[in-house]
Amino acid sequence: MKPGRFIAVVGPSGVGKDTVMETVCARNPALIRVRRVITRSPEAAGEDAESVSVAEFDRRVGAGAFVLHWQAHGLHYGIPATVLDDLAAGRDVVANLSRAVLPDLAHRFTRSMIVLITATPEVLAERLAQRGREDEADRAKRLQRADFALAEGLDPVVIRNEGPLEQAVAAFEAALQPERA
Ligand SMILES: Nc1ncnc2c1ncn2[C@@H]1O[C@H](COP(=O)(O)OP(=O)(O)O)[C@@H](O)[C@H]1O
Ligand SMILES: O=P(O)(O)OC[C@H]1O[C@H](OP(=O)(O)OP(=O)(O)O)[C@H](O)[C@@H]1O
């Protein structure tokens, strides 16, 4: 069977990755949204993630429980290795990743694609403030990282999310058809 695609959604903090993914997945039930494992408190999770302690996260790294993991914003994030079962069964999966781990995709997955969501710095600042998940100091650090450059040689689908959410969602759906990978 043809394996599913690992669809990596990346972009600066506050750009709307989770919001766009949630809407796309709600409208396309065949897509599987990856439930990330994060060392963030459950109250602050802001997405359907599994919250664990740093000790538990490290234990899982040692046990090979993650197909990808990274650190950012003082937190640890992991993508459960169980996504490999979904991909092997031919299902497409969608996950919010760090831009820093994109060079690993080609080694980990047979078929993958990258969706880079962007917006102007002004829009990002406004959205982060509106979301209210982080304090001002943390928001400032996230904004400083907004222009993190992707590694050379990657071929992302770029979607601007500056207007109505529906536009970004439609662009995402269009990127899924026809299949690029
Ligand atoms: N197109 C949009 N128009 C207006 N607000 C948006 C849009 N997309 C996302 N948002 C809002 O911006 C904030 C940040 O979105 P979120 O999905 O948490 O971003 P990210 O996951 O990229 O950090 C949320 O409050 C969300 O409701
Ligand atoms: O290396 P970067 O591309 O800058 O990404 C750093 C981290 O930021 C995002 O996390 P998270 O979803 O916690 O934050 P966000 O919702 O504010 O983007 C993303 O999923 C990474 O885990």
Automatic annotation (TrEMBL):
- Report the GO molecular function annotations: ATP binding; ribose 1,5-bisphosphate phosphokinase activity
- The UniProt transmembrane annotation reads none
Per UniProt, which keywords does this protein have? ATP-binding, Kinase, Nucleotide-binding, Transferase
Specify the pathway.
Answer: Metabolic intermediate biosynthesis; 5-phospho-alpha-D-ribose 1-diphosphate biosynthesis; 5-phospho-alpha-D-ribose 1-diphosphate from D-ribose 5-phosphate (route II): step 3/3
Annotated Guanylate kinase-like domain residues? 4-177
GO biological process: what's one of them?
5-phosphoribose 1-diphosphate biosynthetic process
**Which reaction is the catalytic activity of this chain?**
alpha-D-ribose 1,5-bisphosphate + ATP = 5-phospho-alpha-D-ribose 1-diphosphate + ADP
Q: Which PROSITE patterns match?
A: GUANYLATE_KINASE_2
Function, as annotated, reads:
Catalyzes the phosphorylation of ribose 1,5-bisphosphate to 5-phospho-D-ribosyl alpha-1-diphosphate (PRPP).
Q: Which family does it belong to?
A: Belongs to the ribose 1,5-bisphosphokinase family.
Q: What is this protein called?
A: Ribose 1,5-bisphosphate phosphokinase PhnN
Q: Organism source for this protein?
A: Thalassovita litoralis
Q: Which gene encodes it?
A: phnN
